[in-house]
Amino acid sequence: MNEERQQQLREGFSRSGMMQLLGAQLQVIGNGFCEIIVPRQDFMARPAGMFNGAVIASLVDVSSGYAAASAKPVDSYFTTVELKVNYLNPAIGESLIARASVIKNGKVISVVRADIYASGPEGETHAATSLVTMMQLSGKKSPRQPKSAAEDPAAEA
Amino acid sequence: MNEERQQQLREGFSRSGMMQLLGAQLQVIGNGFCEIIVPRQDFMARPAGMFNGAVIASLVDVSSGYAAASAKPVDSYFTTVELKVNYLNPAIGESLIARASVIKNGKVISVVRADIYASGPEGETHAATSLVTMMQLSGKKSPRQPKSAAEDPAAEA
Amino acid sequence: MNEERQQQLREGFSRSGMMQLLGAQLQVIGNGFCEIIVPRQDFMARPAGMFNGAVIASLVDVSSGYAAASAKPVDSYFTTVELKVNYLNPAIGESLIARASVIKNGKVISVVRADIYASGPEGETHAATSLVTMMQLSGKKSPRQPKSAAEDPAAEA
Amino acid sequence: MNEERQQQLREGFSRSGMMQLLGAQLQVIGNGFCEIIVPRQDFMARPAGMFNGAVIASLVDVSSGYAAASAKPVDSYFTTVELKVNYLNPAIGESLIARASVIKNGKVISVVRADIYASGPEGETHAATSLVTMMQLSGKKSPRQPKSAAEDPAAEA
């Protein structure tokens, strides 16, 4: 992934109201991989203390979108066709970590697997795994569309 | 669904930090059905204007949990095993409406379908459909457990 | 759906080795809906007597492909992007009935719900429900491609 | 996995009418992993030559069932709660290989990922990936039930 694409995706992430709300940090982005960290806030927790499933599903969606986008050139946009999440273990910890990897980088359809971990003093717990289908909306044939690039670099951001 | 169960679920909903954040209103709850409305806020929107997929996935999870819980007696708790969402149309509108219906009300496993609509001046758009698998954690054999009832009436709330 | 399309899809179905093996009958096809019946054979049954999940998953795939194809003009071909099946009740009966309906008939992506019923002397049991994502491969812009039409009318047939 | 469990699962596999029909061979079974090979037969192929999606979905279901069962003691039985398959690449080759691994070996719910490869002279193609949710029906508390063991060792076999 070139510098321009990385910058484009990082700017899109920093502008996302949803990511700001979650206090999400884009740790790693590039070549079909994305890692996002979300420190725990009160509204994210169920009464029993673990992160709720809604925050986990949100992270699956967003991290998959950025992973798919990072495997494509500048100004490629994606929309989520469908996502499927399996919740594996209670997400108990001080932060959530999403790690999303592109499995299939197709011309139109990209398939991504995102794994969500809850991280605490005793290490990481595998909270959820997923499969996400994304569709590329534009950018394939026209690698430069500077105007919209400033607006919505990753479709699900 | 009796009065006590309805009240238990409504109280749980009103205590949920996530639902408060979304400004979500529990419109209808009972007998395996649940309707939730979320008025649009800035952080929910993608740059192009539609509700983002993360809010939609969150609503799928929460509405399915309440629908499943509403088909069971007081003090039955659920956890989400897995969820799968298909995004059908851009969710353009002033509010999101989730309507979740129990398809299978099993002893251990409940299966729910939640449909998400974007509502605006020109009517409703079918934004997403889903299938959600929930597992009952407790309450089957012991219909009254007042202590925990005050804490987490619906597992995914 | 015009006569030519109906005939094209029925011919494709009758040529499918998989459908012949299952003894499957295409009962209804048209306008985004498809019904297929499969009489029970020994190899389809688990030791306990119900239809096995593999035959059900196969029917989900095939019926969704024909439903999607029936909403498009002659010589439109589909491939299955992904499918998700929830098994609801033991599929006990003398035949399986698949009923598939298009939920979203998009330009590239179609989303179909297929429900599978086990039919016996005491009526129908809802054995499984599903969501299937299909992608149109060709035919959108060129409604007539007679040569390939004879070969593979429905991508998953 | 002890000898007795391995033998129990291999006997169940060899008795399965569905597996006999597919000419399927159980290559590896044990400790939450299962590998099955299916040589190509005419009825499995679509007109264009690749394995059809129905055979792939069947293999996902069966291999996941055996993988889940292999992580449990003798006389544990599973049923498939739901399965989700993403088709990644055309399954062109002389045989299909299913490799299924348990991700979560829970008390009630097991989650398995099955990957399907098409194998030919030029190597393996990643045809499909999946996530499968299985529920244990029995065997947890009573490790020996010799009578039923002879009948249906793996629920989805």
Number of domains of chain A: 1
Task: Indicate the multimeric state.
Answer: homotetramer
N-end to C-end Cα span of chain A: 18 Å
Q: In the CATH hierarchy, what is the architecture of chain A at level 2? A: Roll
Roughly how many Å is the radius of gyration of chain A?
Answer: 15 Å
CATH class of chain A: Alpha Beta
Q: How much strand content do the residues of chain A show?
A: 35-45%
**Class derived from helix and strand content of chain A:** alpha+beta
CATH topology of chain A: the name is Thiol Ester Dehydrase, Chain A
User: Could you tell me the mean pLDDT of chain A?
Assistant: 88
Total DSSP E strands of chain A: 6
Which homologous superfamily in CATH is the superfamily of chain A?
A: Hotdog Thioesterase
